[in-house]
Amino acid sequence: MIRRQFLKTSALAVAGTLALPDFLKAGPSYPQKLVGLQLYSIREDMTKDPLGTLKQLSGMGYRYVEHANYNNRKFYGYGAKEFKKILDDLGMKMPSGHTVFNSQHWDATKKDFTDAWKYTVEDAATCGQQFVISPWLEEGKRKDADTLKGFMEVFNKNGELCQKSGMKFGYHNHDFEFSQKLGDRTVYDIMLGETDPKLVMQQLDIGNMYNGGAKAIDIVTKYPGRFESWHIKDEIASAGGTGHEKYESTILGKGIVPVKDVLAIAAKAGGPNQFIIEQESYQGKTPLECMKENIAIMKGWGYKA
Q1: What is the CATH number of domain 27-300?
Q2: pTM score > 0.85 for this model?
Q3: What is the rounded distance in angstroms from the CA atom of residue 14 to the CA atom of residue 192?
Q4: How far apart are CA 249 and CA 246, in angstroms?
Q5: Please, what is the end-to-end C-alpha distance for the chain in angstroms?
Q6: 113-144 per-position pLDDT tens digit
Q7: Per-domain residue ranges for the chain?
Q8: 145 Cβ contact list (under 8 Å, min separation 6)
Q9: DSSP 252-291
């Protein structure tokens, strides 16, 4: 299942209230230029054996991971404190995570977040996250410019909520943000124009945007300093691609994205500080084999895990 389908069919079914202890409110601190892995890259392995898979990643040299599985107040089947202890015992940290934020998490009548979303933020803080990232924007919120602008106001409020716990709310792009226009502006232009960078960070996926007709170099140049985290991803022509999805991800350095050059340009444009490897297609290799190659390639380019 490709990730857009996964995100569309995923649902968050949690409830509760937000009550954070003071020690969590200071916020986590992470080194500059850290290299991590988006665990969606090895989603089947994490479903079958999360603990064993994390041990393998640790053995490869990964020290930072980003989750893509939070359901019923659990990360891959573990409560927040338990999952953090597992990571700690393996010498790993989780500076960010993906949980889709949508209209079901905002009570427009009360002008407040639902208990389900408050728990999402609380559990992210417990795990030591710096960023709470939503990797999808529902279609209903991008049907016209005014609707999108209104939802970006909620994004800013989400940033204020996360800020109380020393974190930032964030957004991770796919491809439609660059190909879809509302009036004379792309969805992405509106999103960045209507969100406060002090409250809402952007995680730029440099591979996804290719299917939307955009290139990372152009976006980074247009919005310098807006991207605190990147998904490091390469792309090749997709044999089974249909419609606008002409490309699929591959091992770093094997595709058409000039990843190393883009990283160098980004450094001069003010960021990012976190480099999160993601690969969703594997061209005959196992996901774990690919992740081992990817981290070796990043190290070969001079980036420390």
Answers
A1: 3.20.20.150
A2: yes
A3: 29
A4: 11
A5: 28
A6: 999 999 999 999 999 999 999 999 999 999 99
A7: 27-300
A8: 182, 183, 185, 190
A9: TTSSSS-HHHHHHHHHHTS--SEEEE-----TTS-HHHHH
